[in-house]
Amino acid sequence: MAALADDPVALRSAALCRFFAGVMRREVGRGFRALRLLEPGLPALPEGAPLVVYANHPGWWDPAVFMVMQGALFPDRAPFGPIDAAALERYGFMRRIGMFGIDPDRRSGAVRFLRVGEHVLADPARMLWMTAQGRFADPRERPVALRPGLAHLLARVPGAVALPLALEYPFWSERRPEALAAFGAPVQPRGEGATDALAGELERAQDRLAAAAMARDPGRFRTLHGGTRGVGGVYGLWQAARARLGGRAHDPDHLPER
Q1: If you ran DSSP here, which 8-state letter would residue 187 be given?
Q2: Positive or negative: CA dihedral 47, 50, 54, 59
Q3: How many CA atoms lie within 13 A of 101 on its CB side?
Q4: In this structure, are residues 33 and 176 in contact, taking their beta carbons and an 8 Å threshold?
């Protein structure tokens, strides 16, 4: 393969990635009650296979959640991911943390995605994270529709595995929302119908996560990253004072977890 312009593998700085991952852990901790992964958690994956995690795209928080999940679940792989080229122009430092720009509405953008994706996945010590819908979409939207780029990439990378990831950010009983995630079954679709197969597995993961989100039972999840607890303000101070006066340990949550 000819040398890539703006090669994300060459540009990536491990030190800057560690720093920015720490920043994202703090931001996710401040923004959410917790980041929770629906059990049984991460499915078994073929050893040494090129890996793409593809997710739905419910909100602005998705890349931050990716970074926290990367550190918790795939610490031995270097993450990379596509981003809109216009956004990358505004946030140029992202080139140093594994992001590469594509123009989703141009053929040249599709070609670059395939070339860079092949390059990244040539080494199993690297992986891709992507929002395969290509736009923000409510997590209850059905049917789930994906852009065809992921299926085309998988066809060009022998042995590559696609791992569906469902995300949503509902409010339960606390001041801050929950960041909820669920993996689907790993898939290796090829040929005609591959995009539909990928969309179907992601939709099944989203349906399973939606049911768990509506049940509001944190016991069905593994906490990957604890967030900010409590309602804060005057009510939070009153809770703490009441606990001290009653000789009890202070639980800052509005409703204690079961």
Answers
A1: B
A2: positive
A3: 16
A4: yes
Q: How many CB atoms are closer than 10 A to CB 48?
A: 9
| C-alpha to C-alpha distance for 44 and 61, rounded to whole angstroms | 26
The answer to whether residue 253 scores a pLDDT higher than 60 is yes
In whole angstroms, how large is the CA radius of gyration of the chain?
20
- Beta carbons of 24 and 16 less than 8 angstroms apart: no
If one compares 234 and 23, the residue with the highest pLDDT of the two is 23
The answer to whether 145 touches 133, Cβ cutoff 8 Å, is yes
- The pair phi, psi for residue 163, each rounded to 5°, is -115, 110
Q: Which residue in the block uniquely carries the two structure tokens 């791992």?
A: 163
* Helix ranges, 177-256 (H): 194-215, 233-245
Q: Is the pLDDT confidence value at 140 over 60?
A: yes
Residues 6+ apart with CB under 8 A from 141: none
Task: For residue 53, report the phi and psi dihedrals to the nearest 5 degrees.
Answer: -95, 120
- Chain position carrying tokens 């920043």: 23
